[in-house]
Amino acid sequence: MTTICNMGCGSSQNGTTGSETMLTKQDEELIRTSWAEFKNGDVVMDGLHMYYRFFETNPEAKEFFGFAKEGEVNAENNKFRAHVKNVFDIVGGAVDGMDNITEVKEICYDLGVRHKAYGVPSKYFKVVGNSLIYALDRKLHLDSNTKKAWVRLYSIIESEAKRGMAAA
Ligand code: HEM
């Protein structure tokens, strides 16, 4: 599962503790199927809605993002589109790596370490997760089991990222 990280990760010392959330085989199946459907389209254009939602609910968070400070947050903003692609690459990597969840956790831990350096408060991870699931749901109209499965996967990502932030 090497595609998930091309940004200098792999150095975490995150041990064996961390998120206790477990994905069932059914969760994994629902996530894989829905992700395949999401990918079968324009991930970036659909993914922009994650950030539209995030900034709608938390407009003050724009100040953290270079792409939002330098230009309008819309589909014409190249840096915004590049950011969305980066974020969804991580999400896709987490989906592809679900059967090696320890590696996913390490990558998310390192993501948290890097986010500490961006100066973002960890409280935003919750609303970013809600915004991610909003963007998936907007396109796919997720049923409740699929939504719950994504919430569980995101809670692993969130909890490891927060551990990385706390340790950085
Ligand atoms: C699981 C959720 C998240 C994922 C997958 C994610 C992913 C990424 C990725 C891939 C990058 C590119 C640089 C790098 O890899 O370090 C990045 C940058 C960044 N992220 Fe996140 N992120 C998440 C949550 C958040 C949250 C909650 C915030 C809070 C506001 C945030 C703020 C930022 C900022 C400020 C940057 C730098 C971008 C810039 O300077 O314009 N991210 N993120």
Overall description:
It is a single chain. The model is unreliable at 1-16 (pLDDT under 50). The chain is built from 7 helices and no strands. It is globular and about 45 Å long. It has helices spanning 25-39, 43-57, 66-70, 78-96, 101-117, 124-140, 144-167. It has a single domain (39-167), classed as Globins (Globin-like, Orthogonal Bundle). With 168 residues, the chain is an all-alpha fold. The site of protoporphyrin IX containing FE (HEM) has 20 residues, from helix 3, helix 4, helix 5, helix 6 and helix 7.
Which key terms come to mind for this protein?
Globin-like; binds protoporphyrin IX containing FE; metal ion binding; oxygen carrier activity; Globin; globular; metal-binding; 168 residues
Outline the fold blueprint.
Layout lengths: L24 H15 L3 H15 L8 H5 L7 H19 L4 H17 L6 H17 L3 H24 L1
Helix pairs in contact: 1-7, 2-4, 2-6, 5-7, 6-7
Protoporphyrin IX containing FE binds next to helix 3, helix 4, helix 5, helix 6 and helix 7.
Question: Could you write a compact summary of the structure shown?
Answer:
This protein has helices spanning 25-39, 43-57, 66-70, 78-96, 101-117, 124-140, 144-167.
Named once each, the bound ligands are:
protoporphyrin IX containing FE
**What percent of residues are in strands?**
under 5%
What CATH calls the topology is Globin-like
Question: Distance between termini?
Answer: 24 Å
Question: Which architecture name does CATH use?
Answer: Orthogonal Bundle
Mean pLDDT: 91
Shape: globular
The overall number of domains is 1
Order of helices and strands: HHHHHHH
> Roughly what percent helix?
55-70%
The first-level CATH class is given as Mainly Alpha
* CATH superfamily placement: Globins
Quickly count the helices: 7
